Amino acid sequence: VMEASTMLVTAIIYGDSPSFGVNSYLALDQGGRVIKPVTVRTDGQARRSKTWSESPKFHAKVVAAFSYTDFDPQAQTTITIFPASGGELHFPLNFAEID
Fold it and tell me: 12-23, pLDDT tens digit by residue?
């Protein structure tokens, strides 16, 4: 049995240039408390979407690792994605409901 000290959260984001994902960021919010990841990595070169020829034409991954000691897996959580181009996206999530 492997024991992991971190949980990975992966988001797929969409944009109009191959490098749009560079410097994007992801964080968790639990009741107004922002939990920053231990590490974040993004695709340096986004992939062209094969199924969608209109804008946005590229998709990239943002992968963040969060230490299990930094967040409550039973608390209501909001994942916030900060694309490098600006703005933010929010996704409510309850980790306790994931099997």
Answer: 888 888 888 889
